[in-house]
Write a structure and sequence with these properties.
CATH architecture of the largest domain: 3-Layer(aba) Sandwich
Structural class: alpha/beta
Number of strands: 12
Distance between the termini: 13 Å
CATH class of the largest domain: Alpha Beta
Helix content: 25-40%
Domain Periplasmic binding protein: 56-313
Oligomer: single chain
Mean pLDDT: 88
Low-confidence stretches: 1-46
Family: Belongs to the bacterial solute-binding protein 2 family.
Keywords: Signal
Organism: Streptomyces polyrhachis
Strand order of the largest sheet: 2-1-3-4-5-11
CATH topology of the largest domain: Rossmann fold
Protein name: Substrate-binding domain-containing protein
């Protein structure tokens, strides 16, 4: 977890997001998980027992954001754990036309399975259709294509769930306070994902009649925009008890603005799961007390699913012979109580 060039960065996270979902996704039905300490970084562990060789093509957008860079790193790292997997990874582009050309190259190479995180889900739907029509199954990662015919399986995060769980966390913290006030630092308002996150947050707050949302600004998933928009919020709403920030990268900027203003009189909840956010939560020396996950480890699970698909296997822990058509990951809340568990999954 952009708009079109920065694009729908996380369009449409592992429950107890990054880790427990790994238990579900990484083992194929005929195999057992290997006790591999290195594999604990993004899941319970992938089965390294060699099977049918699988060539996986991976096409993602340009890594212009910490989360997107971690997507690529997770894909490479997971593929490297399998002796039977060859990964063909493209350079990545935020230009749909350029990414379409990269996907065509992977189709021409006759890869066994394609994992695609599209620069723009709607614009790249035809690329997914071309691959499927060529007999290459597609794992659609995160930003969803417009047609279910363009992919075999979709895996991604729950933007509505991010807002819902952020709202619930704040609601529980403030439920004993009469006349509590909250604000929101959103992402790019033109994105459906931003609207979903805000809707989830607003819906959660409906369960806490003592809480009123009194301010909102939209930033751009960058440190600079986070600092600028948080400064505006602090000036516009001088008194509030908590706020939710949609993105941990822009949250770094928000924390700078808060520090410059000398404010310590509210709690902050972030979004996505960056290493900086985890470190701040663990240190417990800022207003940031929790973050709601949208972790890039979903790329590692996409590789697991692609490998299972290429080998004709299902998913461990399920009775079916086939992998699921949709995998929506859970948006866990990470606070001081559980942050050590998630530290290895934090993106930089």
């Amino acid at each position: 977890m952009s708009h079109t060039p920065l694009t729908s960065r996380r369009n449409v996270l592992f429950g107890a997001a990054a880790l427990s979902a790994g238990t579900f996704l990484t083992a194929c039905t005929s195999n057992e998980a290997k006790d591999d300490p290195a594999a604990q970084e993004v899941g319970q562990g992938a089965d390294d027992k060699p099977g049918k060789p699988v060539t996986i093509g991976f096409a993602g957008p340009q890594a212009d954001h910490g989360w997107l860079n971690a997507i690529n790193d997770n894909a490479r790292s997971r593929a490297g754990k399998y002796s039977d997997v060859t990964l063909e990874i493209t350079e990545g582009s935020n230009d749909p036309a350029a990414q379409d050309g990269q996907i065509q190259t992977l189709i021409d190479k006759k890869v066994d399975v394609l994992v695609i995180l599209p620069a723009d889900g709607k614009a790249m739907t035809q690329a997914g259709l071309k691959a499927m029509q060529a007999g290459i199954p597609v794992i659609n990662l995160d930003r969803v294509f417009d047609s279910q015919q363009a992919y075999r399986t979709w895996i991604g995060g729950d933007n509505y769930g991010m807002g819902l769980n952020a709202g619930r966390y704040i609601g529980e913290k403030l439920k004993g306070k009469s006349g509590a006030k909250v604000i929101e630092l959103a992402g790019i308002d033109s994105l459906e994902l931003t609207r979903q996150r805000t809707q989830g947050f607003d819906d959660a707050l409906k369960n806490y009649p003592n809480i009123k949302k009194v301010g909102r600004q939209a930033a751009e998933f960058t440190v600079e925009s986070g600092q600028r928009k948080m400064t505006d919020l602090l000036q516009a709403v001088p008194e509030f008890d908590a706020f939710w920030n949609h993105d941990d990268d822009q949250g770094d900027g928000a924390l700078q603005a808060i520090k410059q203003a000398g404010r310590e009189d509210f709690l902050m909840v972030g979004g996505a799961g960056s290493r900086n956010a985890f470190d701040n939560i663990k240190a417990d020396n800022t207003v940031l007390k929790a973050t709601v996950l949208y972790p890039p480890t979903m790329a590692a699970s996409a590789i697991d699913l692609a490998r299972a698909l290429g080998q004709g296997k299902g998913v461990g822990g399920m009775a079916e012979f086939e992998i699921p058509a949709f995998v929506t990951l859970y948006s866990a809340v990470v606070d001081k109580e559980n942050v050590d568990r998630y530290l290895p999954t934090g993106f930089k």
